[in-house]
Amino acid sequence: MRHTAATYLTESIDMKTLQEFLGHQKFETTANTYSKSTDERLKKIGLTFNNLDPNSKS
Question: Is the dihedral of CA 12, 24, 34, 3 positive or negative?
């Protein structure tokens, strides 16, 4: 349940804040565990921008 909640939080707070909230001593622990969620969001953002750009070839 903690992991699920933290995964949802990656959509609304930055990774540093999440690290502090979870009590991880090392940023890398948080980043390595939850960066997949961030990568998926970046892909969605890229798709959104491609859809807005009429000159995009993607």
Answer: negative
CA atoms of 22 and 10, how far apart (whole Å): 12
Using CB atoms within 10 Å of the CB of residue 38, give its burial: 0 to 12 exposed, 13 to 18 middle, 19+ buried: middle
**pLDDT per position as a tens digit, 28-51:** 999 888 877 666 777 777 766 666
Dihedral sign from CA coordinates of 26, 32, 33, 34 = positive
Q: For the chain, how big is the Rg over CA atoms in Å?
A: 14
What predicted TM-score, i.e. pTM, was given to this entire model? 0.58
Q: Report phi then psi at 15, rounded to 5.
A: -65, -35
Residue pair 10/34 in contact by the 8 Å Cβ criterion:
yes
